[in-house]
């Protein structure tokens, strides 16, 4: 069959696909209880020698095994299922443990229809073709030489910005969404490295060294079109407000374009183990304290705020409140240990942090880790906070904004408390080119606040 022929046939299938995806009857319906029951069955078997049998024989051409009439499909960490998930974006991860993971179809009909439509636009590949056939074909990814019939000359593109997690992702999401609304395929142009792809200067051997050095190192590909810069028409969108549907669509686009590759997913699984249990049990208030590049003499002009100031924004704190602290800088953790440890229940990821100021390698990522490690921690923190926290206290930050949107997307009511951390440019500018002095000055302000508090406490006592 020629490529042109297969294009025609796929085009015909598309009409069917749209019809099917609007059909409310979901052929792969499963209930969460069923899934849990089956997984318990699998887990019980994993304690004896049956487990390797159930998932044995998985390989690159057959990376998952589907169960219960294809209501979910599971794989092993040591066999990559990336090619499989790439063209099953309407399946989501529903289970992970130390040696396996499982996908199940997205249950929300509107979301599933949107993702299928988006995927069609991006790849001209009809998901139904692979998923409604018999199970053995569902278990196989597409052959690597599959010819997608996307018209790449019609593609819209964007060059990623080399900024922090929130800003970079927002840029991609909004540009992608713009292309989607114009019914154009979208691709990111490979231009410059993303800061999270850098290793520590003294150690280049990280788990995520990748030649592209951008988002594509971590996330599944979104398009078969070339990433070379050929002056394609560009969509370069800053975040903007939208109505409820638009906000929802952008979140689904975010999920679509940031599906972690398996090696990253495994890393994330291990990173969240030490704290997930606590957060699940207690719930949490998420607190985002941005230091690192806050205070830099460039917009948006920001200061460091004391942890006390964030706490003061939350009227109903109790000794029982579990606070999930998200921060980029060691000074925040030290401050909590010195002044607040006994008053609340604190949870934070145990990455090593240094006192960082924006400069050179520390640009946005002061933690004393390589960029990829930092990205992994950020991803885990966003995931856990959005899953378990019902409130968020934060200052001015694109990262906090993306976190809030994700928390809201779970459908739970989310209470936010905002601390104004903006300052006038003139208070930041004296430190141009002197990041160490700036950080010292800002930290002194934080210290002064506690000093004053101690003094007024002392006066109250006397
Ligand atoms: C399995 O799923 C198909 C639809 O995908 C359905 O037609 C069939 O009845 C199901 N079989 C069983 C045993 O549930
Ligand atoms: C991969 O596994 C499938 C199913 O078990 C099997 O049919 C196929 O021959 C295997 N392929 C390779 C390359 O081993
Ligand atoms: C993956 O690990 C399982 C045990 O968990 C083992 O049985 C299997 O042979 C491994 N597969 C590969 C491809 O290494
Ligand atoms: C799907 O999700 C959207 C957005 O969260 C929600 O408005 C809608 O009611 C959901 N639809 C179904 C069928 O659950
Ligand atoms: C895709 O197209 C190339 C070049 O036209 C051809 O060599 C290859 O066999 C095709 N692959 C498939 C799976 O049809
Ligand atoms: C592909 O897109 C270009 C640019 O929009 C257009 O000129 C061309 O006709 C399209 N090709 C096909 C086969 O649709
Ligand atoms: C790591 O890579 C950077 C950029 O290629 C290079 O400048 C640096 O010398 C390397 N460091 C080590 C320890 O190899
Ligand atoms: C370099 O990084 C790797 C991966 O993070 C780590 O395993 C290794 O111990 C590090 N080496 C040094 C010398 O720090
Ligand atoms: C939201 O925006 C979409 C376009 O993206 C539009 O079709 C829809 O009518 C809008 N909904 C409301 C309630 O304004
Ligand atoms: C804190 O939790 C404990 C045990 O769950 C409970 O007995 C106590 O009343 C709670 N205190 C407050 C102030 O909510
Ligand atoms: C404080 O109360 C609000 C409104 O009842 C609630 O949504 C929020 O989760 C509470 N925050 C904390 C930290 O308990
Ligand atoms: C304030 O007092 C506490 C103990 O009451 C002490 O740990 C802390 O160091 C003092 N802070 C300052 C800035 O003096």
Automatic annotation (TrEMBL):
Keyword Signal recorded: yes
Listed Gene3D superfamilies: 3.40.50.11350
Signal peptide positions (record): 1-24
Top-level taxon of origin: Eukaryota
Keywords: Signal
Gene Ontology process terms (BP): protein N-linked glycosylation
GO MF entry, a single one: alpha-(1->6)-fucosyltransferase activity
Protein name in the entry: Uncharacterized protein
Source organism of the structure: Seminavis robusta
């Amino acid at each position: 069959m020629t490529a042109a022929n297969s294009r025609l046939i796929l085009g015909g299938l598309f009409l069917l696909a749209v019809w099917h995806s609007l059909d409310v009857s979901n052929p792969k319906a499963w209930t969460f209880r069923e899934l849990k029951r089956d997984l318990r069955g699998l887990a019980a078997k994993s304690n004896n020698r049956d487990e390797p049998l159930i998932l044995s024989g998985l390989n690159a051409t057959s990376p998952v095994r589907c169960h219960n009439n294809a209501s979910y499909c599971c794989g092993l960490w040591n066999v990559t299922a990336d090619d499989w998930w790439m063209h099953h974006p309407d399946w989501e991860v529903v289970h992970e443990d130390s040696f396996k993971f499982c996908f199940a179809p997205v249950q929300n009909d509107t979301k599933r229809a949107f993702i299928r439509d988006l995927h069609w636009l991006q790849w001209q590949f009809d998901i139904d073709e692979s998923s409604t056939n018999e199970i053995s074909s569902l278990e196989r990814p597409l052959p690597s030489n599959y010819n997608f019939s996307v018209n790449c000359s019609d593609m819209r593109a964007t060059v990623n910005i080399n900024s922090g997690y929130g800003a970079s992702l927002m840029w991609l999401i909004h540009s992608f969404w713009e292309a989607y609304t114009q019914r154009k395929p979208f691709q990111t142009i490979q231009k410059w490295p993303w800061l999270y792809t850098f290793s520590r200067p003294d150690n280049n051997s990280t788990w995520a060294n990748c030649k592209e050095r951008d988002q594509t190192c971590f996330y599944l590909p979104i398009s078969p079109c070339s990433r070379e810069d050929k002056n394609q028409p560009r969509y370069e969108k800053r975040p903007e407000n939208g109505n409820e549907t638009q906000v929802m669509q952008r979140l689904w686009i975010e999920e679509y374009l940031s599906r972690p590759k398996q090696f990253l997913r495994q890393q994330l699984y291990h990173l969240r183990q030490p704290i997930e249990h606590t957060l699940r049990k207690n719930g949490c208030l998420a607190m985002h304290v941005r230091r690192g590049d806050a205070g830099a003499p460039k917009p948006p002009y920001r200061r460091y705020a004391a942890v006390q100031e964030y706490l003061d924004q939350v009227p109903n704190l109790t000794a029982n409140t579990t606070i999930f602290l998200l921060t980029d800088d060691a000074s925040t953790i030290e401050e909590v240990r010195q002044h607040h440890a006994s008053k609340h229940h604190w949870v934070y990821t145990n990455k090593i942090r240094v006192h960082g100021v924006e400069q050179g390698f520390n640009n946005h990522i002061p933690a004393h880790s390589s960029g990829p490690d930092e990205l992994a921690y950020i991803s885990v923190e966003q995931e856990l906070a959005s899953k378990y926290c019902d409130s968020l206290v934060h200052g001015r930050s694109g990262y906090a904004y993306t976190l809030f949107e994700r928390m809201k997307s779970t459908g739970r009511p989310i209470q936010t408390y905002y601390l104004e951390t903006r300052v006038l440019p003139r208070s930041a500018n004296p430190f141009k080119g002197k990041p160490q002095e700036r950080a010292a000055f800002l930290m002194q302000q934080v210290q002064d606040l506690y000093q004053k508090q101690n003094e007024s406490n002392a006066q109250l006592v006397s």
